[in-house]
Amino acid sequence: CAKENGRDNAKIFTSEMASVVTKKFGVEKEIHEALSLKQFTLAFQPKVFMEKENILGLEALIRWNHPIKGYISPADFIPIAEESNLIDKIDEWVIDQTLKQQRIWRDKGIAIVPISVNLSGRHLVSDTLVAYISEVLERHKIEGSLLEIEITEGILLQDIQRCIDVMRELKALGIKISVDDFGTGYSSLSYLRRLPLDTLKIDQSFVRECDSHLEDGKICETIIHLAKNLELVIVAEGVETAPQAKKLKSLGCEIFQGYYYHKPMSSESVAKLLAKTH
Ligand code: C2E
Ligand code: MG
Ligand code: MG
Ligand code: MG
Asked: Where in the numbering of this chain does the EAL domain appear (predicted)?
């Protein structure tokens, strides 16, 4: 009887595993198709200095409009792409598309600002990244100073020496580097002084209640002071209300991103906005 139970369990386990695997490969196949069928687009969300009108940069955010399933959030498909080498293809597409966009806007006489792209941590340490980026900068004739890279904390702890080496090469191209979602990873503060970083982005989970929840306000204050002491630029992301912005300003933060200022928007809308404000 025990043996039979054991066999049953094994059977259930296997079929569940199979369905998870099938589903994952299904999505991977669809991501692959999405790349070749051009189903991805980029949205751009402005970063502002103090006020809505002072746009000093943009962040490129990938959008997937699936022909049947409709909009699929990057929060859902990026983690799946990260489990395969598809993330490298996606990240490369985003970099190429971003610099192509810069070129189009520059040719139209629009005053362009630096655009940051989110890179999967795994891709940062791959040996092809720097060569790829230099090639694309060259192809679109865009300066490295018009590109920034956002990475999350996770990867920084895994192979710090490799991260330092890659970041130095990126910086030699004029590219700036931000730590995204700062404060949510397994932070070891020692990496902050070893890595050649430019910017910390305070995670929106702290921003959300910075004006209403004492501890969250204190965490924002601490992160802002930390950034200032280390001579890093600080950006607050996910700012949705005037009281949040006011509180963050009172703590010394000057650069903001969030729905209160601007939502992520199409390239056409952002071009109009840049033309109007610059
Ligand atoms: P992230 O880089 O931290 O981007 C911020 C996310 O917050 C974006 O969600 C943005 O649309 C959203 N957001 C901006 N302002 C507000 C606000 O005021 N309130 C709220 N509630 N949300 C706000 P999105 O576009 O869904 O992207 C989610 C995550 O997916 C990104 O987090 C990033 O980690 C990843 N991601 C997005 N695009 C790419 C990409 O091209 N490549 C890679 N590797 N990852 C990407
Ligand atoms: Mg980001
Ligand atoms: Mg973030
Ligand atoms: Mg995030």
From this structure: 24-278
